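Reviewers asked in the last cycle whether our approach scales beyond single polypeptides. To address this, we selected a multi-component target totalling 576 residues and predicted its structure end to end. The input consisted of the following lines:
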Amino acid sequence: MISSEDIEKLAALSRIEVSDEEKGKLGSDIESILGYVSEIQDVVTGGITQAEKSPVHNVMREDESPHESGIYTEILLAEAPAREGNFVRVKKILPSNYDD
Amino acid sequence: MTIDISQFSIRKAHEHLMKKDFSARELAQAHLDVVAEKDADIHAYIEVYDDVLAQADIADKRIASGDVDTLTGIPLAIKDNILISGRKVSAASKILENYHATYDAHVIGLLKKANSVFLGRTNMDEFAMGGSTEHSAYGVTRNPYDLSRVPGGSSGGSAAAVAMGGALAALGSDTGGSVRQPASFCGVVGLKPTYGALSRSGLIAMGSSLDQIGPITKTVSDAEILFKHLRVHDPKDSTSLPAYTQQRSDGKLTIGIPYDFLEKGVDREVRRNFDASVKKLENMGYSCTDIKLPHVKHSLAIYYIIMPAEASTNLARFDGVRYGMRASSDTLLAQYVKTRGAGFGAEVKRRIVLGAYVLSSGYYDAYYNKANSVRNLVAQDFDTVFGANEKRVHAIMTPTAPTPAFPIGERTADPLQMYLADIFTVPANIVGVPALAVPSGVTERGKLPFGVQFMAPHMREDTLFRIGKDFLGEQQ
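The resulting structure, written as structure tokens, was:
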């Protein structure tokens, strides 16, 4: 059973604001989806894990040959919602009672 | 000459361009005319670019020079989650409403090299999450065969654009069937290549172990042309496969059908059409046989654990800091929370929260790890039927979707009902094998398209093209 508090906690972990109305619908939807996907818990798997079987392998390379510094700065910062010089501008991270 | 584009495939249009029967500009204009006539009703496009004819002029210069690729001057529609440098791309989400791509997707770079013409970006379910193109922040797309029905999804705009004659071909992306299911609903061809065949660089990510870009076309030969052009190793995608060559197998092919998987939830007319399609292949000399894939029935459950887990991680980057929408607030944390609350639609929130649940410490083993283990069992089932033994099959066949296109609004209230539309397409993503959806007729009363799907072993797209061409009566 997914409680309203569970949904609040998951939404907070996901950094998503949800209204009370959304909470109710999310709770019942997720409960019904979990009810469906839980069928896999009865499958006997013999403990094989993805890592042992996966054909996908990690690709490594030397940390070298960087592109020329600054060539993408303008094009990337042009998409930022707010900027100051060559920085992305954001709200303060600590609440105001941390101010001097 | 007047251009009746409804008759054209990429191959045919290319031949006409080479013979100078018409120019790339005229070909592009003919498609723009169709869009102007039909897209107010169908809404396949979120945006039609304003420089289409200028792009076509450049293609015409290239054609005049004689150094031409099959795709030169071919007008294409691109799903709104594939980046074209400098152009808007939104994944049909409010959170990226005014975002401009800062680089080209690998596949786009390859198409630019050929001087293909980009007509515009097509509508989709937000972040490719959905099976009906109803979950777009920019309105629904309608099925060209019946405007009261969905075109499928999530690449519904791309499929509708091709089906209505508003693009010669299109690119979509397929995480659980998002190229094949809309292709089937709109009566066109859709290919999901082998995982790793086409680079994911520049595709807005949903489920990274499942996502593949794929072509939506009018013919199997066109899908093959696009696939071969885009099948280039890309060091920017760590899962991009090295070059692989496909030797055509000339012998008789055997097609396996997992009949026990088709027993539940398949529309009666779809089943009748499927059985007739099997007959048709048998009459052509294919041998069709019953196979068992004991774990394939769990594919959808596996999918709805792994995909949300990966999506919740991938979509963490949309926080209103570096790009996209930013909601105003007093602190940085409140800004994240409000931006994501206002920027994401209901289905996206549902999957992110579900992903957070299956990845949380108390449930990780029971859901995420377990799903990965069962995923391996499904892969083993495929290995067994495709493996080197006397009972091996060269391809697996199922209907593409359990029903024809459903009415708009029918499934939006019940997510699980919506998810079931992907029951036959999800296994290919779970296992990473290539799959091709081809049209197989229309319903008796509503004239809605049916489709069948073929799956082949990893890197054996050649087998799919061969069967698909035979099935549609195309020249090999």
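The domain at 5-230 of chain B is CATH 3.90.1300.10 (Amidase signature (AS) enzymes). We regard this as preliminary and will revisit it once experimental data from Aim 1 are available.
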